[in-house]
Amino acid sequence: MPANGFNKALKLQFGLINHESQYLTAEAFGFKVNASAPSMKKKQIWMLEQDTNDPQVVFLRSHLGRYLSSDKNGKITGGAESPDKGCRFFIVPQSDGRWALQSEPYLRYFGGSEDQLSCFAKAIGEPERWAVHLSLHPQASLLSIARKRYAHLSTSEEEMSVDSDIPWGVDSLVTLVYTEGRYCLKTCDSRFLNNDGKLVKENFPTTCFTLGLKAGKLAFKDCEGKYLTPMGPTGTLRSGRCTKPGKDELFDLEESHPQVVFQAVNKRFVSVKQGVSISANQDVETDMETFQMEIDRVSKKKMFRTNGGSYWTLVSHGEIQSTATEVQPNTKFDIEWRGQLVALKASNGKYVCTKKNGQLSAVSDSVGDEELFLMKLINRPMLILRGESGFVCHHKTSNTLDSSRSVYDIFTLLFADGAYHIKGEDGGFWYVAEGGVVCSDGEGPEDFYLEFPEHGRVAIRTPGGMYLRGDQGGILTAAGETLDGTSLWEY
Fold it and tell me: How many domains does the chain have?
């Protein structure tokens, strides 16, 4: 597993918003840069890179793969193919949470509006202040750099503790809620972290934090200028005394893979409780019955990791065990989506079945009852979807759903015997109306099926076999007959 954590740390991608609430934009034509976009789409996303020799120096790379650069006269371009002298910047955090970007070789500050951008200011004024809007999917695992432990909703359920060796189960899911340039940390039960470490149901100034950055790691500064840090033996997450972030105040956001529970035809849960054998023989769901589903980026095959860090693997005679410590050909499985149920195919080309004693074995040539499983996603009680064009959220003036917004709404995902119901914060359910338009004000639930075709993406299908997609007008519709980019969603 990665040295810094259980999963991969997310690369920091973000939009920069100027004093006129416009996003810094990289244009393909002439690699020109302006600040004239009201929302964050592909052209407004920047990736932060750091100088390996001097971690205080950063480079800003656009969606075009080119770097932001300034010359000695303050002229700004976005066309540098490699991070040369003019691409070197310092981030100077401001008291209100915004950033000032200072050219390292020329010591001038970057700012301006629309197409009048320059890096020639000697001092930081309002035009040189940029708000940071993260563009990564806002649901992740939070790793303390100093403690090398993960944040989770504690068993007392009154605080977030940073004492978990691995980010396991729904309690380890953290949702970043962006509001007016600041971020709130939301737990899986929809409560906000207050700066005193308590969890509260409503959003207050004391639950809002500005993002700091040091050596490529994140820090969270509260409204009083103090930083979040794990405190005490259980690592209670709260604001400490520090007004400057040290190692104790630094965090990584790590990718949150889907974690699932399987129920076999015998109505029992698949488990590793009995040792290395994978068997459907338990009546309750615990960490031993939960598996992290990791998806190979190239082959799209699935790997299932246990909470002990080992993988399901095919061994002799077709038996499935949890003896693999790393990914290899025998740890890769295909999933076939069959309505409310799934079938698993192992690397030997055989389907996984449940034997009479509950043991899982890949010995079947076809799919019958013994080869079907109910698979439940357990670590997305709150659903945030982002597609090719942006996030899904309620339409401002109708009961439809936008699929191309730079802001997101949080929906509740409810499991229903192999299907899922999706509910908005106002209590209305998603349903498919005439013409395939997805609406959000249903009085009762309607079934949808989740499929996981590739790494980091989910597809949502109706019982009629149509996939939800964002149409050209930015409206969510059930109009996809086959899977393509418009029907794949970060979740």
Answer: 4
- The tens digit of pLDDT for each residue in 265-304 reads 999 999 999 889 999 999 999 999 999 999 999 999 999 9
| pTM as predicted | 0.85
Q: In whole angstroms, give the CA distance from residue 54 to residue 375.
A: 47
Cα-based distances in Å from 34 to 24, 37, 110, 469: 6, 8, 12, 31
Cβ proximity of 461 and 453 under 8 Å:
no
87 in a domain, yes or no? yes
Last residue of a domain, one of 377, 397, 417: 377
Q: Look at residues 226, 255, 284 and tell me which one is the last residue of a structural domain.
A: 255
pLDDT above 60 (res 315): yes
49 DSSP β-pair partners: 59
CA atoms within 13 A on the CB side of 35: 24
Q: Give the residue carrying structure tokens 């849960």.
A: 269
| 7 inside domain | no
Q: Copy the structure tokens of residue 66.
A: 């080119």
Domain of 417, in residue numbers: 382-487
Cα 161 from Cα 177, distance rounded (Å): 19
Query: Distance between CA 477 and CA 463 in Å, rounded?
Result: 14
pLDDT in tens, 155-183: 777 899 999 999 999 999 999 998 877 89
**Number of other CB atoms surrounding residue 435 within 10 Å:** 8
Per DSSP, the three-state class of 413 is strand
Q: Is residue 67 part of a domain?
A: yes
How do residues 400-421 score in pLDDT, each as one tens digit? 999 988 788 999 999 999 999 9
Q: At residue 3, does pLDDT exceed 60?
A: no
Q: Count Cα neighbours of 292 within 13 Å in the Cβ-side half-sphere.
A: 22
Give yes or no: residues 96 and 35 share one domain: yes
Domain identity same for 122 and 17: yes
Q: How many CA atoms lie within 13 A of 459 on its CB side?
A: 23
Instruction: Tell me if 123 is assigned to some domain.
Output: yes
Per-residue tokens: 64: 């075009």
Position 129 confidence tier, pLDDT thresholds 50, 70, 90: very high
Tokens 């357990």 belong to: 378
Can you give the CATH number for the domain in which 443 is found?
2.80.10.50
Residue 104's nearest CA partner among 137, 69, 76 is 69
State the pairing for strand pair 76-80/259-263.
unpaired
Examine the domain organization and report whether 121 and 71 are in the same domain. Answer: yes
